[in-house]
Amino acid sequence: MELPVSESVLYVVATPIGNLGDLSERAKQVLADADLIAAEDTRHTASLLSMLKLSGKKLVSYYDQIEEKRSDELVKQMLVGALQVALVSDAGTPCISDPGYRLVAKSKAAGIKVIPVPGACAFTSLVSSSGLPCHRFAFIGFLPNKKKSLDDEVSSWGRLNMPVVCYESPRRLISSLEAIIRQYPEARVAIGRELTKIHEEIHTLAIESALAWAREHKNLKGELVMMVDPSIQQLSQEELLEQVRRGAEDLLEQEPSLSHKDLMLRFGHHGLNKKDLYRLLLSLKK
Ligand code: SAM
User: Fold this and answer.
1) Whole-prediction pTM value?
2) Distance CA 36, CA 20 (A)
3) How far is the CA of 18 from the centre of ligand 1 (A)?
4) How does pLDDT run across 163-192, given as a tens digit for each residue?
């Protein structure tokens, strides 16, 4: 179907995640030329613009709660006149765990050209400097808060068969790592904190060491992104059975009171067929 062609353009502009030097020349120019800037937080963007000596730009707020209504309004305005609109979030790339996708979708549906102005993004920064295999990976945004949802989410990684990248809060880091180690004791983890800022740190560690590090830094502040390589090896059922047998024997030696159910939970995500796992663990408990 032919769409009406609007003269307007929507630019999706990435802004720095900490270091102002990461704003590209092109992004600066697009912001300077924009008739209107749709910003997640107008005060935040106003201070970025003032640092760039671009004061006096027209800003409209565009955050999660008003996204539906505001995107309709913006598309209407873009259809009426030839407008250059820049979409920005507080930090990094709009639409990546940030508002924006509705405006992009509706603009495209209305025949308005959408142009990306790429730049900083917390998760790509970590992936590229983690040293973990990254020819394929899954980005899942923020991890769920509730224990059951967190366990279910972590459990689903076993089927993905690739590293997983997520945004994380320092407050929840320990409980998330505990959920991960329960299911993937062989995992490797990269933790990126305060990327591109003065206190930037990136640690790529075995899961036990990552958990020990997090426990030593209980009052961690700042922003975090995490990459987890669950390290699930492609073993045959026989090899898996043997691996689980050894793991379960060791565990039972340390904690003989563990029930059959505890063991099922502990080893349920090793890729072993449920019936075989059930029988094996039952025989060990006997
Ligand atoms: N759109 C952003 C992007 O492109 O990365 C992400 C927005 S999301 C609402 C914000 C989360 O990204 C933070 O809570 C933190 O987990 C992560 N993040 C943002 N800046 C970061 C930084 N400098 N270092 C580490 N993580 C960061």
Assistant:
1) 0.82
2) 21
3) 9
4) 999 999 999 999 999 999 999 999 999 999
